[in-house]
Amino acid sequence: MQIVTINPSAPFFIVFNPGSGRDDADVTRTTIETFLAEAGREYHIMVVEDASRLPHISAETVARAKAQEGVVVAAGGDGTINAVAQAVLGSGCPFGVLPQGTFNYFSRTYGIPSDTAKALQVLLNSRAHPVQVGLVNDRVFLVNASLGLYPKLLEEREAYKASYGRTRLVAWWAGIMALLHEHQPMRIHVEHGDQSYDLRTLMLFVSNNRLQLERIGLTEAAVLEQGQLVAIVLKPVAALTLLRLVLRGALGQLGDADHIASLAFRQITVMPARALLYSRHRIKVAMDGEVTLLTAPLQFRVAPEELLLLKPEVAPGENPPDPDSL
């Protein structure tokens, strides 16, 4: 897929999820409307009042954008961006993001600012570049997908956020409190090409995000630029050891940890042990911060299509610019 120059009159079709924003939703919407009106750019905003309708609204938005040769834009956190990307993938529509979440790993990886006005400037002045997408079964993930401990941590984190607010501090505190409990390991069977592994693990974490891997100190981040994904296996450990591993990750020193194993791949199949006993066993899988139930076996792979993402230009061999400096 080639870099695409966007028609300067192409309308923007924006899926806006006010519930996922860190800022006041009315202020964010006003910023979008004022900025695009002053730029003389046609736009349509689809507000997601009910999160359960996000997939349906995203599909309708993509259909409208495709009919009018427009650009589909996701305004929300990583979960909202994921849902819109699921609808966009394979449509041929260019894709833009206005990040509104807590961590915004996807947008930050590609140099897209968290400030709404600056992100709008990127939409107006950028070409669409192909970016890699991960799949677990038929579901998209842009940042990561996991099973085991991580989905449990996300569920507890959401409970904390509902009580104490959607900030990074609350997210970190919720994670630390959840890690203090003892967690039962799971048994999984992994097939990778002609090799297979039977593993006992607390978590299988599959990454499609260079920035996230670099921040925790894993050198495998480079393989994402080579059309692969990275699977990280956390061996069973006690709660205090788990906390020490989290601290090492926060310091960017997880790469040489004894309790971590990793594998670069284009496709693997994962079968939880319970799925060998029960047909159509369903298991909790976290994708870009949202937890859902999927039917085993789980196939993690690089999607055959890429997203056409509007993002700042980057010279060959260089990293994207610091989003907050744009």
Walk me through the structure.
With 326 residues, the chain is of the alpha+beta class. The protein folds into two domains: 12-133 and 305-321, Rossmann fold; 139-302, Tumour Suppressor Smad4. Helices cover 33% and strands 29% of the residues. It is built from ten helices and 18 strands. It has a six-stranded mixed sheet with strand order 2-1-3-4-18-5, sandwiched between helices. A six-stranded antiparallel sheet has the order 7-6-17-14-9-10. A six-stranded antiparallel sheet has the order 13-12-11-8-15-16, with helices on one face. A hairpin with a 2-residue loop joins β9 and β10 (195-201). α2 (54-67) crosses α3 (78-88) and α6 packs across α7 (168-179). The radius of gyration is 20 Å and the shape is elongated. The relative contact order is 0.16.
In short:
The chain has 326 residues and is an alpha+beta fold. 33% of the residues lie in helices and 29% in strands. Strand 9 and strand 10 (195-201) form a beta hairpin.
Topology:
Elements lengths: L11 E5 L8 H15 L3 E5 L6 H14 L3 E6 L1 H11 L5 E6 L5 H5 L6 H10 L2 E4 L2 E3 L2 E3 L2 E5 H16 L3 H12 L6 E7 L2 E7 L1 E5 L2 H7 L12 E6 L4 H12 L9 E6 L1 E6 H5 L4 E6 L2 E6 L2 E5 L4 E4 L16
Parallel strand pairs: 1-2, 1-3, 3-4, 4-18
Antiparallel strand pairs: 5-18, 6-7, 6-17, 8-11, 8-15, 9-10, 9-14, 11-12, 12-13, 14-17, 15-16
Helix pairs in contact: 2-3, 6-7
Q: What integer value in Å does the Rg equal?
A: 20 Å
Topology order in helix (H) and strand (E) letters: EHEHEHEHHEEEEHHEEEHEHEEHEEEE
The level 1 CATH classification of the largest domain is Mainly Beta
CATH topology of the largest domain: Tumour Suppressor Smad4
Shape: elongated
Uncertain runs? none
Spatial strand sequence of the major β-sheet: 2-1-3-4-18-5
Termini separation comes to 27 Å
**What is the SS-derived class?**
alpha+beta
Number of domains: 2
In the CATH classification, which architecture of the largest domain applies? Sandwich
Q: Beta fraction of the residues? A: 25-35%
Mean pLDDT: 86
Largest sheet: 6 strands, mixed
Q: Helix coverage percent of residues?
A: 25-40%
Report the count of strand segments: 18
Annotation field: number of helices: 10
